[in-house]
Q: What sequence folds into this?
């Protein structure tokens, strides 16, 4: 053994095995009906141009599962693609003058190269990017299918409008009322938006969550809350005369009709039809609406904004007491998109309503009284009471519970003909129009005579024009007459193309189905999707828990309605991995510093090459803005891809964040070389691969074999349960057992000892293969195999070797532990009792008292009752 051979060489090994896998097409998937399938998918990345450690962790987990399932005999599909449309490419085009498509494809090429260095078991023959016309051609076809099925419509919607960039921006891009990029005050505008009817599937989307037991509970709860099914009352309040024309009533929806006697005001949205009518003749209403429009359209933005109201001077009549008048306010916290765009305020039992009532000196009447309190004297203070209690000050509802009060109030309103019980959803239809160039064109033509005309399917794809200019704000497609001018497919007269493009969430809502047959001439190949779908395991960040996953679930239902798939849930199992974190460094002048700029001396950190002390901040998610990132390329160059993979799998439970440390990656590298030496240093004493099992083993050899087979069973269970860090810990334990055995038997190892050692070494290499595949191939070859470990079946544990021969049983006398015995497993109960009663401490505990009963729980405990 030379010094060079005792150290694992990742720089030669990793390219060697990547080339071997590629040549053998080891991971190319074909539908084989005779084999069980397994579809492993990580959420595909946006091509930003560089991998980060979050990619490595996500992909290492998915690759582990893919390789493990392949070894277990599954026919594995593990594809990769690129979520390639989106604003970053347009921003880069504005900054550099480079075409978004050129920028995107260069980034894809760079990231593909980096990803291949990681050694992922991916079927690259299925790769596509969502900006490929061949992909979005079928996305456009799906849109037309949905349109024909009545799942798409066009409507006027309120949106955030950036007047400088001249485009719609998402709620998340409104920062303190201003556009995130331009800094301009955001305006609320009403634009015609193409919209998917996701609400058609609201019941299915929420009901099926109960069956999805392989999804995290927190994700299912987030989706349930987002869909927000609530049962309540939709009713109308009469507006006192003289009421504005066509507004003799105001309709509201409430889940708490039991609190109607606590109502003190009506609040309507700034976009409510009544508000718009009032604004026509009242400049103050118009001014208030403009003030409201400075807030984003998201619930979060409205929730955090100061609650403001404009008193209209109108009054509503209480449905149960016509002597009670309720002032009608226009309020900035009421969204037209939710419910009816109007609410009744019950300040005593809703904090938002209480804050509003106090601000405008409105009456506060408690109608739910906590148990034990006197209704005549009890009242709320600065905090609304939202607990349970009995109804009071509520006429015919007095004394009822919340549930009985709700039922009685609904019944009374229905009897009066002023409303009806109703199921309401928080979920709203999905507006998909974006005023952007770099997205999938919407396949619609607008004709003055024929109206809205779908693009004929034979003319798909509607491709983005290659020539594009970002020299002016707004959507470049609006200014591209060559793209816009087109004859109407129906009447052949001049018409105009739709210039809006799809929300990029559309692109990622069906890509998993396209991977099943990426060359198909239709959006899906039914035979292929029927074989491969659903995705068996989906892995990605929890930040996608709501929108992406909800939209993908909608799309699958819509695709079933239009005949493209035969299922409604796309992802059987979902796992959300934690983030990769690193401590932060900051100079005295406030400048963030990268880890490469830092030298550590004990607990202190210094700017490298200087005596300047640097403040060390907490470990947080790696980000460019904090400069606490670690370049995967540098790690792979220095330690190899397998070491990086091993570290991100080993250091913490996969659902939790992992902290990247230099000591951690060094420790992983040391283990790689320890395992390499165990193989290298013992080669000469091992029997040939495939040697028959000896007839007998010495005690130490049996102990090693037991450790080996117990580890197989435990690691198998841990990987099945996605407990990757526990699987790694068990492999560490087996490596220590192998090392100990090898050291003790080095001078005089028998043939049976050599067999036990080879068995242990081959097993540990097979078990690390899904985690460190290049290393495993190199070690497997070194052990004398002429086939790849990638194609080797997963080791099977011998049950006889996983059971312990002895068990230790505690002995209790009248419930108190008095001793313990070690006995053969499954020993006869009478023999166990005899041995237990012979223990000195037990004899003393019994003394001269009579033994009433002895209870032996096999392999668990002995209870003696005296």
A:
């Amino acid at each position: 053994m030379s010094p060079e051979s005792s150290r694992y060489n990742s720089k030669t090994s990793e390219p060697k095995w990547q080339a071997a896998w590629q040549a053998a097409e080891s991971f190319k998937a074909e539908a084989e009906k005779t084999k069980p399938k397994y579809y492993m998918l990580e959420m595909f990345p946006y091509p930003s141009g560089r991998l980060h450690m979050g990619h490595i962790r996500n992909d290492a987990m998915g690759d582990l599962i893919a390789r493990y399932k392949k070894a277990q005999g599954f026919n594995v599909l593990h594809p990769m693609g690129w979520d390639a449309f989106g604003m970053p490419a347009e921003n880069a085009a504005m900054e550099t003058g480079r075409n978004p498509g050129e920028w995107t494809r260069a980034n894809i090429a760079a990231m593909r190269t980096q990803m291949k260095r990681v050694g992922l078991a991916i079927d690259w023959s299925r790769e596509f990017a969502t900006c490929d016309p061949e992909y979005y051609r079928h996305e456009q076809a799906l849109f037309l299918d949905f349109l024909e099925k009545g799942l798409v419509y066009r409507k006027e919607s309120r949106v955030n409008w950036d007047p400088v960039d001249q485009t719609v921006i998402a709620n998340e891009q409104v920062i303190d009322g201003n556009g995130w990029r331009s800094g301009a005050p955001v305006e609320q505008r009403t634009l015609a938006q193409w919209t998917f009817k996701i609400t058609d599937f609201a019941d299915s989307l929420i009901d099926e969550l109960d069956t999805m037991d392989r999804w995290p509970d927190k994700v299912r709860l987030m989706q349930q809350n987002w869909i927000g099914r609530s049962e309540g009352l939709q009713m109308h309040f009469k507006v006192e005369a003289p009421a504005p024309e066509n507004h003799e009533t105001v309709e509201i929806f409430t889940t708490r009709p039991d609190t109607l006697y606590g109502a003190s005001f009506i609040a309507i949205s700034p976009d409510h039809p009544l508000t718009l009518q009032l604004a026509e003749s009242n400049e103050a209403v118009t001014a208030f609406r403009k003030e409201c429009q400075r807030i984003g359209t998201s619930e979060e933005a409205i929730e955090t904004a100061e609650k403001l109201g404009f008193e209209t001077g109108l009054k509503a009549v209480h449905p149960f007491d016509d002597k009670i008048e309720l002032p009608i306010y226009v309020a900035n916290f009421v969204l037209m998109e939710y419910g009816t765009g109007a609410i009744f305020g019950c300040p005593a039992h809703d904090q938002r309503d209480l804050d509003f009532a106090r601000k405008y000196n409105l009456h506060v009447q408690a109608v739910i009284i906590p148990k034990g309190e006197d209704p005549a004297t009890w009242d709320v203070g600065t905090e609304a009471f939202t607990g349970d209690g009995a109804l009071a000050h509520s006429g015919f509802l007095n004394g009822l519970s919340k549930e009985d009060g709700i039922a009685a109030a609904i019944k009374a309103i229905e009897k009066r003909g002023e409303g009806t019980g109703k199921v309401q959803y928080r979920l709203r239809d999905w507006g998909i129009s974006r005023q952007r160039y770099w997205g999938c064109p919407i396949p619609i033509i607008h004709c003055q005579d024929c109206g809205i005309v779908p693009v004929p399917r034979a003319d798909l794809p509607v491709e983005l024009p290659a020539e594009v200019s970002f020299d002016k704000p707004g959507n470049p497609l609006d200014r591209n007459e060559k793209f816009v001018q087109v004859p109407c497919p129906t009447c052949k007269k001049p018409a105009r193309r739709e210039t809006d493009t799809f929300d990029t969430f559309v692109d990622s809502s069906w890509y998993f189905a396209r991977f099943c047959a990426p060359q198909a001439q239709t959006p899906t190949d039914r035979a292929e999707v029927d074989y491969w779908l659903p995705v068996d395991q989906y892995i990605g960040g929890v930040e996608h828990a709501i929108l992406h996953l909800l939209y993908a679930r909608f799309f699958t239902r819509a695709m079933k309605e239009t005949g493209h798939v035969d299922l409604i849930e796309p992802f059987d199992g979902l796992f959300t991995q934690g983030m990769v974190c690193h401590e932060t460094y900051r100079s005295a002048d406030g400048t963030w510093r990268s880890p490469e700029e830092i030298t550590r001396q004990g607990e202190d950190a210094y700017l490298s090459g200087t005596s300047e002390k640097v403040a060390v901040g907490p470990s947080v998610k790696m980000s460019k803005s904090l400069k606490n990132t670690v370049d995967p390329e540098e790690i792979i160059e220095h330690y190899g891809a397998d070491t990086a993979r091993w570290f991100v799998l080993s250091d913490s439970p996969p659902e939790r964040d992992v902290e990247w440390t230099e000591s951690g990656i060094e420790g992983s590298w040391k283990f790689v070389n320890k395992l390499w030496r165990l193989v290298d240093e013992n080669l000469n004493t091992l029997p040939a691969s495939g040697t028959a099992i000896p007839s007998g083993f010495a005690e130490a050899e049996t102990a090693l074999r037991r450790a080996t087979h117990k580890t197989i069973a435990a690691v198998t269970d841990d990987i099945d349960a996605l407990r990757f860090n526990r699987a790694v810990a068990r492999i560490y334990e087996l490596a220590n057992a192998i090392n100990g055995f090898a050291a003790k038997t080095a001078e005089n190892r028998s043939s049976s000892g050599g067999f036990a050692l080879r068995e242990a070494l081959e097993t540990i290499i097979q078990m690390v293969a899904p985690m460190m595949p290049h290393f495993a191939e190199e070690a497997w070859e070194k052990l004398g195999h002429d086939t790849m470990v990638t194609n080797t079946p997963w080791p099977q544990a011998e049950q006889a070797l996983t059971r312990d021969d002895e068990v230790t049983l505690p002995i209790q006398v009248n419930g108190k532990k008095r001793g313990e015995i070690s006995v053969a497993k499954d020993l006869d109960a009478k023999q166990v009792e005899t041995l237990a009663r012979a223990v000195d401490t037990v004899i003393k505990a019994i003394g001269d008292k009579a033994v009433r009963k002895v209870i032996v729980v096999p392999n668990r405990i002995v209870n003696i009752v005296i």
Notes: The two ends are 66 Å apart (CA to CA).
